[in-house]
C-alpha cells in the first residue's frame, strides 16, 4: 500500500483506491481478510471514521464484504469487477479525450495507432535527420 496520501484527493477515496490496487495486484486475494479500519487509520495516521468511509465504499460496490465480529474480506469476483471498472475509467479519462483531440487535429485512426506504437516518433526522427543532410 502507498504510505503517503495525496493532498488533492479525498482521503477516503484514496483508501478505497489503495485497497482496489492491492486486490488488482493480487496482494489481497478473494476470500482473504483485509486490514481493519483501525489498522488503516494507524497506518495512514487518519481518523478511523475516514478509513471506514473508504472501506464502506468498497462494501457498497460489492468488492468487500463484512463478517460480523471478524472483519472485512475480499468478495468473490472482486478482481475481475475492479479491472472492468478501471478499464472503463481509463477509456473515459484517457482514450475518449485523446480521440476527441485527434479528431480536432485531423489525425486518423491508423496514424493514431502508429503514434501509440511509437512508429511515428521513429519516422519523424528519421525525417528530421534527412532534412538536416540536405
UniProtKB/TrEMBL annotation:
Domain spans labelled HTH gntR-type: 9-77
Keyword presence, Zinc: no
InterPro entries in UniProt: Tscrpt_reg_HTH_GntR, WH-like_DNA-bd_sf, WH_DNA-bd_sf
GO molecular function: DNA binding
Keyword Transmembrane included in the entry's annotation: no
UniProt keyword terms in alphabetical order: DNA-binding, Transcription, Transcription regulation
One family name in Pfam for this protein: GntR
Source species, domain of life: Bacteria
Protein name: DNA-binding transcriptional regulator YhcF (GntR family)
Organism: Caldalkalibacillus uzonensis
Amino acid at each position: 500500500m502507498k504510505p503517503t496520501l495525496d493532498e488533492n484527493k479525498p482521503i477516503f477515496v484514496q483508501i478505497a483506491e489503495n485497497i482496489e490496487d492491492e486486490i488488482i495486484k493480487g496482494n489481497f486475494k478473494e476470500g482473504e481478510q483485509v486490514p481493519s479500519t483501525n489498522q488503516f487509520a494507524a497506518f495512514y495516521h487518519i481518523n478511523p471514521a475516514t478509513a471506514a468511509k473508504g472501506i464502506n465504499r468498497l462494501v457498497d460496490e460489492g468488492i468487500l464484504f463484512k463478517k460480523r465480529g471478524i472483519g472485512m474480506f475480499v468478495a468473490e469476483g472482486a478482481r475481475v469487477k475492479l479491472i472492468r471498472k478501471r478499464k472503463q475509467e481509463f477509456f473515459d479519462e484517457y482514450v475518449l479525450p485523446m480521440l476527441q483531440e485527434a479528431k480536432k487535429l485531423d489525425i486518423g485512426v491508423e496514424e493514431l495507432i502508429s503514434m501509440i506504437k511509437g512508429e511515428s516518433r521513429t519516422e519523424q526522427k528519421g525525417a528530421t535527420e534527412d532534412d538536416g543532410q540536405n
